[in-house]
Amino acid sequence: MNVPASYLVALSGVLFVLGVLGVLIRRNAIVIFMSVELMLNSANLALIAFARAMGPAVEALRGHVLVFFVIAVAAAEVAVGLALIVAIFRTKESIDIDVVNTLRG
Amino acid sequence: MTTDLALFIGLALIAVVSAVSMLASRDAVYSALFLVLNFLTVATFYLLLHAAFIAMVQITVYAGAIMVLFLFVIMLLGTEREDIGGSIRWQLPVAILLAVGLAAELVIGLFRSAEGVTGQLPAVPDSFGSPASVGRLLFSEYLVPFEVISILLLVAMVGTIVLTFKKREGSR
After folding, report:
1. Cβ contact, residue pair A2, B57, below 8 Å
2. What is the ipTM, given to two decimal places?
């Protein structure tokens, strides 16, 4: 596929904004968490597009390595985050984030 | 319109529509499945951008392991339904306003900085982004971060067990 990398970066921006919108409008903690994953994924897409635009240089592959690390950290983050959601569900009997308002003044 | 552009537009439409459907569906299971579709579309983009290794990692780790974890938790908790109508009435308009603002900022930033990437993509050899080439870099220059990742995953595993550990009655 040979389209300008700016198209791919624009798509990545659109997906990122959709992820932000998901975090802002949804109240189910799991769906909010999935929106965060969408944002991470859009950042990865931009990194891969930039790596491709840098061409055959070996330096360009560092973008791929960075994406690999992002995916590994995201896996760790998902494991801990879902454990937190399960813990919240145990105490509050719900994962609606409006219920988690113990710190409200 | 070239074939490449048509391919890009088709895949981009699938990615955006699946992301919007993920936000719009009331059932969290549907949301998760739409997100899987989105991840698979992005993996196709990786394949088309000469990032074969990352595409396979994306499918196995993201679309596979992570989303299975999500589905497990959704079904374990049985909280896939969300009651419609939030307690904050102005949440939706303000959220849309903020998202539009962020989108405008991204567009401006993109137009200012994208001069270097608006041309056609340069030709790359077939080995670009293959498991061998990425692996060589990963195990030479990035060996220490690679090992640190293993510790991070171990810590995450221990943390998950600690967080979800149920204390038995009678034990400390």
Report:
1. no
2. 0.93
- In chain B the first and final C-alpha atoms are separated, in Å, by 70
What pLDDT does A15 receive?
94
- pLDDT value of residue B83: 57
CB atoms within 10 A of CB A86: 16
Tell me the shortest Cα–Cα distance from A103 to chain B, in angstroms: 17
Per residue in A58-67, pLDDT (tens digit) is 788 899 999 9
**Inter-chain CB proximity A49 and B49 less than 8 Å:** yes
At residue A31, does pLDDT exceed 60? Answer: yes
A15, A34, A52 ranked by CB distance to B121: nearest: A52
The verdict on a CB contact (< 8 Å) between B77 and A95 is: yes
Question: Hey, how many other C-beta atoms are within 10 angstroms of the C-beta on A1?
Answer: 19
Q: Is A12 helix (H, G, I), strand (E, B) or coil?
A: helix
How close A21 comes to chain B (CA, Å)? 6
Helix axis angle, A61-92 to B143-163, nearest 10°: 10
**Six token digits for residue B130:** 């293959």
Residue of B29, B37, B39, B49 to mutate, interface with A, max A Cβ within 10 Å:
B49
What's this model's pTM, rounded to 2 decimal places?
0.90
Helical packing angle, B143-163 and B131-140, nearest 10°: 90
